[in-house]
Amino acid sequence: MEYVSPAAIGAPVAIILAGTGLFLLVCTTWAAALGQSFVACFCGTFGGFWLSYGVFVLGVLHDWFRIPPEDLQRSVATFAIAWAAFFLFITLASIRLPIIYTAIFGLVVVALCLVAAAYLMTPVSTDLLRAAGYVVFVFAGLGMSLSWTVMNLSPGGPAWPPLGPPIRAAPGREALLTAGG
Length: 181
Known about the structure:
With 181 residues, this protein is mostly helical.
């Protein structure tokens, strides 16, 4: 099922660049100023992704990068692989946070790997792209759930919906003292 034609690929670029990328970079600066380093990392990573994606799409549409047509598929795959590798490290760093963070980052990695695999096939695999789209809907839904919980907590409400336990609990003070000697 096609919502818009492939020719309209640039249609969401304004929203992606300004509404998502720029907004997340403002959030990154705000979180860093408050000393919330992981929130700054979270927002900065997604902001950087969306800004680079917007520039990549604009560059391809306007031939800014002079990518030969026969190299375009591999260029898209390289973009997805590079970001998947970056998000993999963020996924690993999140294992001491509530599990929803690890799930979101892990699903981002899965979606990007599916996109890369789709573009490494000739012709591009629309089935893999469709699967990547479904994974995006899942991690976006988890992101909305996370946002809802944070919005509930900020005015003093309950942590609902719950974010889940961490995959690996942070060591207590005793464990740190024992490990350090």
